[in-house]
Structures are given as C-alpha cells and as structure tokens.
Amino acid sequence: VHGALGPACWLWDYLRRTGMGGYFLPLSGGADSSATAAIVSCMCKLVVQTCNKNGVAYLNVLNDVRTIVKAPQPENAPKVVECVDDSGECCFVSDGYIPKDSRELASRIFFTCYMGTVNSSAETRDRAATLAKEIGASHSSVIIDPIITALETFFFTVTGKQPKFQSAGGSPQEDLALQNIQARTRMVVSYFLAQLQLWANGRPGNLLVLGSANVDEALRGYLTKYDCSSADINPIGGISKMDLKRFLLWGSKKLELPSLETVCHATPTAELRPLEGSAVAQTDEADMGMSYEELRDFGRLRKIERCGPVSMFQKLTSLWSDRALSPTAIAEKVKRFFRFYSIHRHKLTVLTPSYHA
Question: Which of 5, 157, 197, 319 is deepest in the core (most CB within 10 A)?
Fold first, then answer.
C-alpha cells in the first residue's frame, strides 16, 4: 500500500505546485509504465475521496482541482463558501465542479499513449489500451515507424550506409543503434504530445511527462540514455522490479484494475528487435544477462549495504546458498554486475527526479 499512497500524494503535490494541466505517460503495456499508470489512478482516487468530504483539506484540494482542470464555472456561480452544519462542524458548499468519479477525473488530467513500431506485439498494445480504459485515462495508440524511417533515411543520406539488425546480417553496433533510435524517438514524441495535447483538446496549458524506469535497471544501466526514462518526474525510480510486481498484484485488487495481474505475469521485453513471426524475440533478462531477482539482490547489497565486489560475493554465497550455484558462478555474476554498473555511471547523471521513501 505504501508503494501506492506515497508516490500518489507526491504526484498530486507536484502537479498542484506546478500548475500544469495534468500528466502524460508513454504507456507500453509493460510492468514499469503500468505501475506508474496505476499510481496516477490511485492519485485520482485519493483526490476524489477528499473532494467529497468536508473540512479544510476539502477546500484546498477542490480549489487545486479546479485550477488544474480549468473546469468552466456556471455564470454568476458563488465560490466555495464556508458554513457550519447542524452538528456544529465546519463544512463547505460549492456550486462549481466537484469530481465524483476517479475515472472522470483521470480523463481530464491523465493522458497515455502507446507508441508502437513494427517490432511491437499486439499483446502489449492491448494491455496498454485495457489498462488505460480501466483507469479512465485519455488514451491513444500511434505508430512511430515513419519517424524512425525518416531518421534512417537521413543517416543513409549522410553516410551512404544502411544499418541492419543482427537478425538481418548486421553487427551488434548496428543492432544497438537501431534499438536506441526507437527508444529515443518515443521520448521526443512524448514531449511533443505533452506540450500540445491540451491545446488539441481546446484547453490551455501543458502536461508533465512521467518517467517509468525502476531502480534496478538504473543501477545496472539497462536503459537507453534520453529514452522514456528521461521525463519530468518518475514515481517508481526508487522501487525495484520485484517490488513493482508485488505492487501490480496488489493494485489489481485494491485499485480495481484487474488487467494489472496480466501485466505482472507477462515476460518483460523492450520490443526493440524484430519479431519472430508474431512472437517477441527479445526479453529483458536475456539482454541483461541476469534475472530481475538477482538484480534486486545486487541492488540492495550495493545501494543499501554499500558492498563492493568482494563483500558482495561473500554475502551472496550465504544468501544464495539454496541455489545450485558454485562460488565461481556467483563470482562471475558479481563481476558482470559491477562491470555494467561501472561503465553506465554516466546514465545516472541524467536520471529523472524520482520518489524515494
């Protein structure tokens, strides 16, 4: 529950202080962006609950809601008025906009977009659309292949070379560049839509872009610099992947978002390499060379217990004693983690501001 309420309150406080018109989230249908969307849903539920109570909190939050959504007031409608009810308790009465349903509020302040490519699967697209519908978000699904093709054409014009994926005979260098240009295109498109989405809907203002990179992948460096991990704020930047999965299962019941359970059990994939038929040919754990469970342990030992390679190895030989791993195998895993941890430190210098508790 703390994985929802804390970040949800943080998001609302940040939104009201900036005076922006809401949040924009690139929703991929994966665990990270779905968890971020669920936290926004929790935020909307808390706001609606508060707006339908009496007291000072009601007055403050309701005024913030009206400022953010810029809801039109009835002509000559009175402002919020303080009074005393029959029990002598302080209450407030208003004729203006009062959100009664979290989905209706989400439709005004939460915008999501699935940015698919030829490498995206129907499963992730459908999961994104289903979750957005359950939340009430204003959702769109677009294809960004024309933008990527234009960039590839530009590169050919400049160099006379046409990069290929490894599956098509290209080198690892070409393959990685073609993956990264997809990820970075999503960041550019996100900010473009965030600046103009309200204008397109006939409303003034801009949207804040939400990031959805978890703490494990940040420590490992498993993210593209200036992709969708680059945003205005990130509510899950201090949460591990394994904790996010537990949050998804909790949210599927407590937040009444049943599609989160399907998201939780789906295999994590970036979907940046060509599909094999209609099946995903890429998984996060295979790309990283380690499981998310292992990455969680590496992260806790490095970040919380401040272990170096030797002390981490010593602790893991005890922690992983129930696994069929030799000391040599554990040592290789530790060396692999620290290798990537070291060479990707530059990525942490541009990480999006995140919630930590």
Answer: 197
CA-to-CA separations, 328 to 292, 314, 324, in angstroms, rounded: 20, 12, 12
CA-to-CA distance for 220 and 345, rounded, in angstroms?
A: 9
First to last CA, the chain: 13
**Cut 0.85: pTM above it:** yes
| Backbone Cα Rg of the chain | 23
Predicted local confidence at residue 45, as pLDDT: 97
Neighbours of 242 (CB within 10 A): 17
Q: Give the phi and the psi of residue 142 in degrees, each rounded to 5.
A: -130, 160
What is the per-residue pLDDT for 70? 85
**CB within 8 A of 94, min separation 6: which ones?**
62, 78, 79, 80, 81
Please tell me the distance from the alpha carbon of residue 185 to that of residue 32, in angstroms, as a whole number: 19
Question: What is the average pLDDT value for the chain, to the nearest integer?
Answer: 91
| 53/71 Cα distance (integer angstroms) | 20
